[in-house]
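Re: beginner question about structure tokens

> Can someone show what the tokenized structure looks like for a real chain? I only ever see the sequence side.

Sure, here's an example I had lying around. Input first:
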Amino acid sequence: MAQAELTQLMKKALEESNKISHWSKEGEWYASNGVNWTDACKLKDRAIALFDVRWQSVKQVIDLIAEELGIANKGHYLYGPGIDDQHPIIDEIRKYVSRAGNKAEMKKKIAELENENAVLRTLVGK
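And the corresponding structure tokens:
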């Protein structure tokens, strides 16, 4: 099937679904049903909209973290639980924290060695 045919098929399916969906009818759909259904559907629609806004915000944060860790666009699925309790973002954060901890220990060790070196130089120089 050619791309143009597939596109036309998708458009037709979308048009058909809009004919039976309440989304294209907005207030008219709510008014044609009972009061209880109206309130329930409005509440449901607000909850879905709120969830969608929150999900989009969370997705943006996850994308920023993935970019910062250098794993964005590397074929990882970032928005759900990982397989076998592993997740690419969590694994990279653990590596980053581990490296940061190692860097702090190394800096401390270097400072100690520099102090020891300075003491030895003063002893040799005397």
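Each token stands for a local structural state, so reading them left to right follows the chain. The chain has a mean pLDDT of 77.
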